[in-house]
Amino acid sequence: MVGEPGTEKITINIGPVDLGRIDLLVQEGHFTNRTDFIRTAVRNQLAASGPAIEHTVARRTLVLGTQHFARRDLERLREAGEQVHIRVLGLASVADDVPPDLALATIASVEVLGAFRASRAVKAALGPRIV
Question: Taking a C-beta distance cutoff of 8 angstroms, is the pair 130, 110 a contact?
Answer without folding.
Answer: yes
